[in-house]
Amino acid sequence: MALFTVFGNPIAHSLSPQIHALFAAQFQLTNSYTRSLCSPGQFAATVSRFFRTGGAGANVTLPFKEAAVQVATHLSERAREAGAVNTLVPLGQGQLLGDNTDGLGLVRDLQTAGVRLSGLEVILLGAGGAARGVLPALMNAGVKQITLVNRTRARAGQLAGDFPQYPLKIVGARDLQPLAEPYLIVNATSASLTGAKLQLPKEVLGSAACVYDMMYSGRPTAFLQEAAQAGAGEIRDGLGMLVEQAGVAFSIWHGGLEPDTAPVLAKIRRDLLNR
Ligand code: NDP
């Protein structure tokens, strides 16, 4: 039986074991996928023990995605760009590849929903790990420009400084105006975890073709409800991104096997609603 896990703290809430069990069932694989709670000082040692004892692959979630960059002996281009690792792949002889599937997860979820990213303008809210992870993937998918909005402006400046090759603009939330061309708003802040307001002008939310909140609970967040009330073309939560990033990781670990993500997303959403 192949052993997989997800490292994080907290970790009890993680949906990854259910998602990966559903993927494995599609190929009649009897994988084991567990949750590994790590104390902050123990992350590297716990990862090393897992792979020494036969681990076939692992995911990494909060707060260890940056620490996982140090644990990996090799990095994929997208992990290097994101400065964060969410997928670890054993290469043999103690070598570990660190990859990042979050950005591709978002892009695939948007594309599945019929959002054409090529030439689209994006307003990206947040400048933390999630924003950093999805920014290169959005640019590589062909978006025209990204407007960065973050509560702490200096942090947005830092993020933009790390990607001088991309057309990025920094604007304060209250100074935002609806864009002239169709645009997508991606909320990559953690504000939805507490229900905190993002102070975006109503007309900016209402004129968006699509408003996406990376947070997921199975139900629309207050931010998405506000966007729908303001008249946004479409609202989407981050559950699809979660399932898609898991699908990319599964494929990496299983020599290119591509799980069918749509029924898995539908089942996970149903389960969340029935909780
Ligand atoms: P970080 O802690 O690295 O960054 C948090 C960001 O949110 C910062 O930009 C911070 O701004 C901003 N923020 C926090 N509170 C507020 C507030 N009250 N008002 C305005 N801005 C605020 O977190 P991550 O980037 O790792 O995660 C962000 C979100 O993305 C989480 O909700 C996480 O669950 C989600 N996520 C979803 C994934 C999925 O698969 N769907 C994958 C990865 C993440 P400041 O710089 O000013 O502090």
TrEMBL record:
Span of domain Shikimate dehydrogenase substrate binding N-terminal: 6-88
GO biological process terms held by the UniProt record: amino acid biosynthetic process; aromatic amino acid family biosynthetic process; chorismate biosynthetic process; shikimate metabolic process
EC number: 1.1.1.25
GO CC list: cytosol
Record: residues binding shikimate: 14-16, 61, 86, 102, 216, 245
Reactions catalysed according to its record: shikimate + NADP(+) = 3-dehydroshikimate + NADPH + H(+)
Domain Quinate/shikimate 5-dehydrogenase/glutamyl-tRNA reductase: 116-192
InterPro entries assigned to the protein according to its UniProt record, in alphabetical order: Aminoacid_DH-like_N_sf, NAD(P)-bd_dom_sf, SDH_C, Shikimate_DH, Shikimate_DH-bd_N, Shikimate_DH_fam, Shikm_DH/Glu-tRNA_Rdtase
Claim: Cell membrane is one of the keywords in the record: no
Pfam families: SDH_C, Shikimate_DH, Shikimate_dh_N
The SDH C-terminal domain, residue ranges: 238-268
Pathway(s) it belongs to: Metabolic intermediate biosynthesis; chorismate biosynthesis; chorismate from D-erythrose 4-phosphate and phosphoenolpyruvate: step 4/7
Record keywords, A-Z: Amino-acid biosynthesis, Aromatic amino acid biosynthesis, NADP, Oxidoreductase
Ligand binding (NADP(+)): 77, 126-130, 150-155, 214, 238
Leader sequence segment: none
Entry function: Involved in the biosynthesis of the chorismate, which leads to the biosynthesis of aromatic amino acids. Catalyzes the reversible NADPH linked reduction of 3-dehydroshikimate (DHSA) to yield shikimate (SA).
Oligomeric form and interacting partners: Homodimer.
Protein family per UniProt: Belongs to the shikimate dehydrogenase family.
Protein name: Shikimate dehydrogenase (NADP(+))
Source organism per UniProt: Pseudidiomarina salinarum
